[in-house]
Amino acid sequence: MNPVDCEDVKRNVHEFLHAQMQTGQQEDITAHLANCESCEEHYDIEVVFNQVIQRSCDEAPAEELAQRVMQRLREVQVHD
Ligand SMILES: [Zn+2]
Known about the structure:
Bound molecules: zinc ion
Shape: globular
Helix content: over 70%
Radius of gyration: 14 Å
Strand content: under 5%
Number of helices: 4
Distance between the termini: 31 Å
Number of strands: 0
Number of domains: 1
Structural class: mainly alpha
């Protein structure tokens, strides 16, 4: 395994969530997330973002969707 820093994780989080990275790289990122609070926080937000997109994309126009996502992200940050 190669050590990854926070910037690597944040750069790759989308690929990570969509399982688009190579297996070894995915393990490196998972290991970093398990030990890094700041990245874990960032990762949780990305997960919420993706869930909102998936739930909303069939029913909402793009502009409304974007507003809903931003609203949800603000809620997450407040409750933190
Ligand atoms: Zn980190």
